[in-house]
């Protein structure tokens, strides 16, 4: 299958390598084309449970139109902070029949669909979101990526929902672990990042600023912090239920458990993550994506969906308020909310119709 991987981050390099190794023709696009030179020359060096090997990439390009042209599937494992400007760049380039897979998206699929609609592009495109990256991955150097774990379950919602069967069948050719979620909002409310990361960075703020490197997933994941995470996750699941979305809700507790329901990365993924050492890092609380993406965009989205659905989210709102005080910015005002997306004025039926049929 012709696949475009959009972006140059950890998940993008992991996707380009894995999908190429599976026999797909992959085009890898990155805004900074100069940074792609080592990959263009020698491919991506992939290290995982199978060992280390070089994986050639069919096309490496800094030309977005070239990357998108003729691609059946576009895999977009990008930080949500990139969605708004990129949605404008891609708006006129979408082609009929394409499927965009945004793992995860914080409802970013709506931004891409809205920009495409505003540009007058009437091609049939499905925008899809799942709850996590298909990889626990970290880049090392210019062309190396280490994958500690692969996704076992990828629950995915589709915009518009009436195109779900077609879209998920295409995604399944690349990611057989894809599972159904009711619609794009259902998929967005499975995003694990805003549940895992904000409590870890906010409640570990002291050691993060004191030590040169700190592993929030190892030393930073203590019982009291897990208690907050569980309460935050309960708010997420309550919001899902208020919108009428059924189980499975993929509770984050399953990520840490050694038995019971298998989470998105399967069992033992948290131990693989900490054992790898790849998450012992320097996190600048003013600039890191855990603050500007998962907290600013992810928690604001959860709070705003809760307000729309009539569900109180005091833990999410409290964490967002503390984070705002920490870095001196109003993160809800800057966030990805139903208000900023122009959805807050819709009633429930109008929102449901839009999720089902699109614009």
Short description:
Helix content is 42%, strand content 17%. The protein has 359 residues and is of the alpha/beta class.
Overall description:
- The chain has 359 residues and is α/β, with parallel strands linked by helices.
- The protein has helices at 10-21, 37-42, 64-68, 83-90, 108-118, 164-174, 184-188, 193-203, 205-210, 223-242, 253-256, 269-276, 289-309, 314-327, 348-357, and strands at 2-6, 25-29, 44-48, 51-55, 59-61, 73-75, 99-102, 126-130, 135-140, 144-150, 154-159, 178-180, 214-215, 280-281.
- Helix 8 runs antiparallel to helix 10, helix 8 (193-203) packs across helix 13 (289-309) and helix 10 (223-242) crosses helix 13.
- It is globular.
- The mean pLDDT is 94.
Q: Name the CATH homologous superfamily of the largest domain.
A: NAD(P)-binding Rossmann-like Domain
Percentage of β-strand residues: 15-25%
Q: Which structural class do you get from the secondary structure elements?
A: alpha/beta
Query: Based on CA inertia axes, which overall geometry fits?
Result: globular
Low-pLDDT sequence parts: none
Strand order of the largest sheet: 5-2-1-6-7-8-11-12
Q: What would the average pLDDT be, to the nearest integer?
A: 94
Supply the CATH class of the largest domain. Answer: Alpha Beta
Number of helices: 15
Largest sheet: 8 strands, mixed
Radius of gyration, Cα only, in angstroms? 19 Å
Order of helices and strands: EHEHEEEHEHEHEEEEHEHHHEHHHEHHH
What CATH architecture of the largest domain would you give?
A: 3-Layer(aba) Sandwich
CATH topology type of the largest domain: Rossmann fold
First-to-last CA distance: 28 Å
């Amino acid at each position: 299958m012709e696949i475009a991987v959009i972006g140059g981050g950890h998940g993008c390099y992991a996707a380009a390598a894995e999908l190429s190794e599976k026999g797909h023709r992959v085009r890898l696009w990155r805004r900074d084309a100069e940074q792609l030179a080592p990959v263009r020359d020698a491919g991506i060096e992939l290290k995982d449970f199978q060992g280390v090997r070089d994986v050639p990439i069919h096309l490496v390009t800094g030309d977005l139109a070239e990357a998108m042209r003729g691609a059946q599937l576009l895999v977009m494992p990008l930080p949500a902070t990139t969605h708004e400007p990129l949605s404008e760049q891609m708006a006129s380039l979408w082609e009929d029949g394409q499927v965009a897979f945004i793992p995860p998206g914080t409802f970013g699929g709506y931004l891409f669909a809205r920009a495409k609609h505003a540009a007058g592009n009437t091609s049939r495109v499905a925008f899809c979101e799942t709850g996590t990256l298909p990889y626990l991955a970290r880049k090392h150097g210019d062309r190396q990526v280490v994958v500690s774990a692969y996704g076992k379950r990828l629950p995915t919602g589709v915009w518009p929902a009436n195109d779900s069967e077609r879209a998920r069948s295409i995604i399944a050719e690349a990611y057989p672990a894809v599972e159904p979620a009711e619609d794009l909002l259902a998929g967005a409310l499975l995003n694990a990042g805003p549940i895992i990361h904000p409590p870890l960075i906010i409640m570990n703020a002291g050691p993060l600023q004191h030590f040169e490197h700190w592993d929030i997933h190892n030393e930073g994941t203590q019982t009291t912090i897990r208690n907050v995470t569980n309460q935050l996750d309960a708010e997420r699941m309550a919001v899902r239920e208020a919108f009428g979305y059924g189980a499975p809700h993929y509770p984050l507790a399953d990520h840490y458990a050694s038995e019971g329901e298998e989470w998105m990365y399967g069992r033992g993924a948290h131990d693989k993550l900490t054992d790898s050492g790849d998450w012992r890092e320097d996190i600048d609380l003013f600039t890191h994506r855990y603050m500007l993406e998962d907290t600013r965009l992810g928690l604001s989205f959860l709070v705003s969906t809760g307000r729309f659905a009539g569900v109180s989210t005091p833990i999410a709102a409290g964490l967002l308020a503390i984070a705002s005080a920490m870095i001196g910015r109003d993160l809800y005002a800057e966030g990805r909310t139903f208000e900023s997306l122009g959805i807050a004025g819709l009633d429930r039926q109008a929102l449901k119709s839009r999720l089902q049929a699109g614009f």
